[in-house]
Design goal:
The protein has 230 residues and is mainly alpha-helical. The protein has helices spanning 3-14, 21-33, 40-43, 47-54, 70-83, 118-126, 151-161, 170-182, 184-194, 205-223, and strands at 37-38, 67-68, 88-92, 102-107, 113-116. A hairpin with a 5-residue loop joins strand 4 (102-107) and strand 5. Helix 8 (170-182) runs antiparallel to helix 10. The two termini are 24 Å apart.
Amino acid sequence: MGKVQNLIEEAINNMPTNLTKNEQIRYIYLYFGKKMKKDVNFFYGSNNRQNSIYNKDVDISSKNDFNVICKSIAQIYSAAFRKLGIECELLEAPSSSPIKHVDLAVKGDNDCWYHLNPMFDLFKIQMGCKTVRFANQTQKYPERNFSYITPEELKKIDDKLGYTWHGMYTNEVFDTLRAEILNRGGFKRHLKERFPNMDSRDLTYDFCNQYKLEFVLEHLNYSNCFTRIY
């Protein structure tokens, strides 16, 4: 059994109980997104090399690495969804090129169909950021009547799965940190609230910098922890 098949089994075995269908779909989307990586042989290869990789279907049972392109990652996600009993389809984006972008359509709660493009969100998932191609609104497939999940609804799911950190995505954490760094007065007020028993004289320049650095490192360590999403 290859690594990909093992990953599918691992993901399903570690999935929390009592998840809705939408939450299961999101869980798989994040779980695999933490492991997959772009196939550099395809993205930086010759035309012949790209055609060869694109036209070769993935053998889920024997694939022994996590290098993917849009088509192969869609096939891997599809195998996992079908194992969970979730209906899904592979979609070829309209294009005159023989190498077409491949997305996923999955059937979630209330028989709603959603558009997924995991390849686009790989880097975002690995950084713990907001995703933009999960159950999103899209005009790429005008013949499909896709539903979508609002950012507020998706945030509740991510909080439940543990994808967010203290209720925040990585990009929100760094936006907040950046604002605090630029606003030294506001940052010191934050520290006084965080350490109410500390004397103001101890909130030195070095202490502030150390706090910021430890805050960033703590978050990055949590963000890179694969077990955070289950």
